[in-house]
Structure formats: structure tokens, C-alpha cells
Specification:
Helix content: 10-25%
Structural class: mainly beta
Number of helices: 5
Number of strands: 17
Largest sheet: 14 strands, mixed
Order of helices and strands: HEEEEEEEEEEEEHEEEHHEEH
Strand content: 35-45%
Length: about 350
């Protein structure tokens, strides 16, 4: 009882709203070569606000290209309730364009952000390699277990700072494997899905500089699967480098015994991007906080200090990144030669 009375004298009530700062505009977006410019605009919110939908729909948003005013960006309402709308332009930038976006809204400081579209990634080769093993057969079908490895060879330009991003998607059919519930596109009715591909970037030495000493000490140095990987040319400056990363967690291939054709062949797409430094810095921080890393696990458990994400927005916060992309696509029928059942 005495202890309880003692601690009661130390009680203090803190009104969090008294620490609430004035809100600022938040702009987020990625400009891609060959695609119309599109950004999202919202505002900052305080802990006591909850998590409201803060899309700003009545702002004055302007697009400048290479120092010249290009057009007024228009707000496009979301297609579904609860989603954020966006500001879109008709202009599609090209490699080397310097993009500047300004935004002003009543009650907030004006903001501005710049980003330049980088040159395309210098790719010497990109391919999928497969290791397959016979697994099972019935009267009409043979099944194989297959492991795929993505091999990407990059010729990094000398005396330049370059930043890259790689991610992939694969086509899967209902009844032949399962699709993730998020990040997929339905095609052919409800028969097949494009969805994000697991890519185990942590198994390539190029990504080892993203792993801290604590990751090795606590056994998280080769943390699980990823869906994208951002990297700089710090370790490959001016050299040719071949990245080899496994994809997926194993696949089953179904082959028709009568005509040797593949039943519901999978397709793979890999998106290979050169990205701006601001975009890389933002993604790099997210990469370090991913689940399975030492820092990410601490953050998930609530034991890590808050981390401010990098921002290149003047007067507000958020990030405008730039990317120049090329896409490589494979069909399972093009890369696998079957020898029949064994």
C-alpha cells in the first residue's frame, strides 16, 4: 500500500495534442519513362488523429519539364471508396527529363520537388535457368519439380553513380499452384493471375552490404524472400557483374504425356529499372526495415527508435522518384526441354 501511494505521487498526465505540429503536405510518386506523370497528395497526421484518409483533392498542382511549365495536373478520383485519388498529367517523360512538381493548398505551406529520369540499365544478358527433377506421373500427365534462377548481367558505366531496382511477376493458373491475395492482376476472367514473384536477393553477394553485423550475430543475415531488390553500383563500379538469385519456393510443372506439351505454362516478367538516388535512398531504408532483418524485427516488436524516411520534397515531406524501365518476359515453353518420364 505504501509503494502504491509513493508511485501515485509521481503520476503525470500528458496532453499529446499540445505537441501536435502544424500539418504539411505529403507528395509521393514515381515518374517512369514513357508513362504519364502521376502523384499522390495528402498531409501529415498526428498520432491522436488515428489513420484518416487525408487525400487532398483541391490543390493547385503544376508540372514543369526541364525548367519550363508544362501543364496543370488534374485530380482523378479513386475508382473505389477508401482508396486515395491522384493527380495526373498527360505528359509522358523521356530519359534525361528533369521533372519538377509544385503543389499548394489552403492551410499548408507550398511544396516543390525535383527528379531526373536516369539512363536505362546497361544489360548485357538476362535469362532464367532451370533445374528440374521428375516427381510423379499418372496415365496422362508427368509432373516435374523445378527450381529457377534469375541471371542478370549488368555493365555498370564507369565514373557514374548508378542505382537499380529489380522485381518480377509470374502468371499462375487456378488449380496449378496458389496466388497471393495482394499485388496480382486477374486476366482471362478468373482463370489466371499475375502476381509478385519471390526473389531471394539475400543469396547474392551484391546485397550483402545491406546486412549488418547484428544480422549475422542473430542469424538473420540471409533473411527470407523478397519481392524487390534495390542496389547501387558501389560494389561493381564500372565493371560487368552477373547477379544470380533464386526465384520462388519451388515450382511444379505439368506435362502432357501424349504430345509433350506443358499444361498451363507459367510466364515470368522481370522489371529492370535504373532509378534516381532519392528513390533508391527511400527504398534502401524500407529494405533495411523489412521483416527478417535485425532492425526490422526490432521495429516490429516496438523496440526500435522511430526512423525518418528520406524525403526530397521542399516545404513538406514524401518522395518523388524516377525510373527508366525495361521488361524481360519468358514463357515456360521456351526455356524447358523435356525428356519424358523417368
Amino acid at each position: 500500500l505504501l509503494v502504491a501511494v509513493f508511485f501515485q505521487s509521481c503520476e503525470q498526465i500528458v496532453e499529446l495534442d499540445s505537441f501536435k505540429p502544424a500539418p504539411k503536405l505529403v507528395l509521393n510518386g514515381v515518374t517512369r519513362a514513357g508513362e504519364p506523370v502521376c502523384v499522390n497528395l495528402s498531409r501529415t497526421w498526428f498520432h491522436t488523429d488515428g489513420k484518416p484518409n487525408l487525400t487532398i483533392s483541391d490543390a493547385d498542382v503544376k508540372l514543369y519539364v526541364n525548367g519550363q511549365f508544362r501543364e496543370q495536373m488534374s485530380f482523378v478520383a479513386p475508382s473505389e471508396e477508401g482508396l486515395a485519388g491522384s493527380y495526373k498529367a498527360s505528359y509522358s517523360p523521356a530519359t534525361g527529363d528533369r521533372i519538377r512538381i509544385t503543389a499548394s493548398a489552403l492551410g499548408y505551406p507550398d511544396i516543390a520537388v525535383d527528379s531526373e529520369l536516369p539512363k536505362q540499365m546497361a544489360i548485357e544478358d538476362c535469362r532464367l535457368k532451370v533445374q528440374k527433377n521428375f516427381w510423379w506421373e499418372d496415365d496422362s500427365t508427368c509432373q516435374y519439380l523445378a527450381d529457377y534462377t534469375l541471371e542478370l548481367t549488368v555493365q555498370d558505366p564507369p565514373e557514374e553513380e548508378n542505382y537499380y531496382l529489380v522485381h518480377g511477376k509470374e502468371l499462375q493458373y487456378n488449380g496449378y499452384g496458389s496466388a497471393r491475395s495482394e499485388d496480382f492482376e486477374v486476366i482471362k476472367g478468373d482463370t489466371a493471375y499475375w502476381y509478385a514473384t519471390y526473389i531471394r536477393f539475400s543469396e547474392d553477394p551484391l546485397f550483402k552490404n545491406a546486412v549488418t553485423a547484428f544480422d549475422y550475430i542473430f542469424g538473420t543475415g540471409s533473411s527470407g524472400d523478397n519481392y524487390w531488390g534495390a542496389f547501387s553500383d558501389e560494389l561493381i563500379e564500372g565493371r560487368t557483374y552477373t547477379m544470380r538469385v533464386p526465384i520462388g519456393n519451388g515450382y511444379t510443372i505439368y506435362q502432357n504425356k501424349e504430345d509433350q506439351s506443358i499444361i498451363h505454362p507459367k510466364k515470368f516478367r522481370f522489371y529492370l529499372q535504373s532509378i534516381s538516388k532519392d528513390y533508391y535512398d527511400y527504398l534502401k531504408m524500407l529494405q533495411e526495415l523489412q521483416s527478417g532483418s535485425f532492425t526490422g524485427d526490432l521495429a516490429s516488436a516496438g523496440f526500435a527508435e522511430p526512423i525518418r524516411l528520406p524525403s526530397n520534397v521542399e516545404g513538406g515531406t514524401g518522395v518523388l522518384g524516377s525510373a527508366t524501365e525495361c521488361i524481360y518476359e519468358w514463357d515456360e515453353r521456351d526455356i524447358i526441354t523435356f525428356e519424358g518420364p523417368r
